[in-house]
Amino acid sequence: MASVPISEKCCLTDFLLNTTQSFSSLDSSQKKTVINLGRAKPFLNIIYKRKSGFTMHFCSSYYDKYSWLTGSCVREKLFCFPCLLFSTTPNVWTQSGFNDINHIFNAANRHAVTGEHIRSCLALYESGEHKTVTSVGNNIEAYNKKVDKNRDLMKRFIDTIIFVGKQELAFGGHGKSGDSYNRGNYVESLSYLAIYDSLLDSHLEQCSSSQDTVFSGLSNDTQNELIENIAEIIRMEIKNEIRKAQYVSVIIDEPSYVSSREQISIVFRYLHANEVKERFVGFFDLSISREASAIASFADFIAEEYDCKNKLISQSYYGPTIMSAEDDKFQIKNPEMHHIPITVPCYAHALSLDLSRSLENILELKVFFGYINSIVRFLNKSTKISKMFELFSERSITEVTETECHLHSRIVTVVYSLRSDIMQTLNFILTSFENWDNETISQAESLSNTFEDKHFNFLLCVISEIFTKTDTLFNDSENSNVSIDAGAVEDFLSWINFKFVNKLDNFLKEVNDLVHPIFNQRKLHVEMKSRSHYKKLLINIKENIMCQIKYRYKSFNKLSFLNLMNKDKYDSFSKLFPEELLNDLVSNFKGVFHFSALKNELNILYTTASLKEKQDIYDIYLHISNDAIKDIFPQLLKLCTIFLTLPIPIASIEKSCSALERIRTYLRNSQSKSRLPTSSLISIENKLLLNIRNKPSFYNDVLSEFLKMDHRIALEYK
User: How much is the average pLDDT of 473-497?
Assistant: First the structure.
């Protein structure tokens, strides 16, 4: 054979398969012709149908991913070009051919690492004038330009994922097909962006007009992978911050007060770059086990994953499972630590939120809170109803929006104070029923009956008074400078224990005054239950509340050292140093402080005007962490760092760093939406994500994660 008798390069594979001579038996000119022609890359009509109904088509990008891959346009199968030329060991890639595209990546990866394949590739490389096996085609530059284009497209996909996640929108839509009016926020956002982006528009147009749609960037798999890749970059950044932090606290919450899912959220709190950070690291499934010990074991595992067990100084828990268990069941233990992390109540939760969750264990109160939420939702149902309400009230019901319906205390107190105005609104709607739709009339009738129910009004009076007092107690604690007013807690416990039940007659009288005949035109009100029933109910409420208050503040004695930096006590401490508080601190944090040095620095704090005038502990921290002064107060700086790391209320920083508030907002906004669990990290930590995105390496980092899985798109440079 003087020359290779083929006119189209796509026939070369079939020629090699059909020839009776092996490649090694050809003369040098013939070998040169074969090698110069290079591997054939025809489009093959290979189709695979999965059981799910999804159809896979052959993709030309297979040739880009595997530089040794070639195809037979006659046999409609794939082969290995170097092995066809040089291998002496028969296999599927040199004889029968491969067409199982459902397993193409696994099979190709296995073949690429075999000794026979490696020897064949080396032989092709060393054969003189050759095609470089590790490049795509003859033009490396053209291939790299393709990579540039693909990476630019991936940036658009990544930014769209960030946009949809940051806005707390669901990614999926109602329709999967290209002509669907709603293909989901992710796909629709890309389609809208394509109007102004020629590169993206060209890509989407090519995908819609070609059968080769394996990688369009629009599939659910691609969305989910990118969400996970971005979430992993966030986790890596959090781990990096924790690595630099001196101390860490963990906050574990069962957010069932907002979401019905059985899950816990985990948050780490620490100082980073002179700012208090509360970083959400994820929701974790509780459906397998809700045992306290199981939750503690999982928290221990997460602390180890984030490499912070040796920095952990406190742990804070909240939730029905947790609040019913003993502290030692939740203890994260580490034999290498000099001290055991102290347990701190979850002060980020409003006290009334704790109480309402607990009171819902009483059936009558669970029903009552359901009615309260229904009232607010109805008044916020439409602009027409809201405007009608404003005709009867000087206040707007929108001050309690539907998204705040978990804040029972706020709702109850507003409904109580605006009861008369709400009743007038409901009665007006019912008397002008011809101007309203059937659903509104039905709801107005039901709520009007509720307000005529004396039992409902009794609970409204009782719960309103309780929440008025607990909100004051919580606000005092929230706005305090680190310390907690034990006296205020004792006063409330005294009131609930000795005076609350004795107010039964006052509550009953108030109910009779509230249910006025002017609002009872249809005589539908439900009569009161017996006095003994309400006395038992008040006793039940009292015991429930006392239990919750004592749980929340049971760590008072253990946390008494917080008063060391209570600004209101600096003057008294300057006269008589609080030795007992300092001893409590040192006993809780063994081996952390130099006792005498800390005492001297605290004495200077109590007596120095420039330090005493600082607003709170965070201001003191910022002042003494300055490079010029931090060496003067090393122990005080350490104390400030620990106090700021503890999950206790400090007015100047809590609202800006509260992860639990971000979690609550996310859960309220996503109850009716289907979401991938990892998308919560993008939404809740969106501020951190935007900071990470400003780093030059961000997109490369995300793509590096993306490339850890097999993909049919060229993203790596040659």
Answer: 68
